[in-house]
């Protein structure tokens, strides 16, 4: 199904902004122009739900979550950045493995099964994209994924 990812992403962010219980600020840096990608919208909703829930779960009180989207060559890159305690470098790739959780004591308290990012990875890869995380301990984490994007003439008319 062809979806304008800007609108799609914006609506998902709206839903979290309306229902969040934490004191966390949202900032959006999305593309101005409609950007159509061919995706399974239900699956990508699950991917974003997990990444955004994680960002909220690990955000400090008063923290900011930044939602970004850029176009780069033949792909779009979608990112969610938080100001949480971060993930140690050695664990950055492991968080995409099933049942992997960085700090068992901390994460047990926050709930979850450790499956969210493993499922997200599977779904992003099924779309021909990649998923990765960058983090500075004590400063925050950015989780990003890419999706193939083909510039079409129609985009200029939006
Ligand atoms: P589930 O998503 O199944 O409810 P979960 O959130 O613990 O459980 P994942 O979403 O797969 O599982 O994340 C795996 C682990 O990666 C988390 O337990 C946490 O340790 C770490 N993690 C993920 N996102 C962040 C983040 N934004 N900041 C800090 N740690 C994170
Ligand atoms: Mg999760």
From TrEMBL:
<feature type="domain" description="Histidine kinase">
    <location>
        <begin position="1"/>
        <end position="151"/>
    </location>
</feature>
<protein>
    <recommendedName>
        <fullName>histidine kinase</fullName>
    </recommendedName>
</protein>
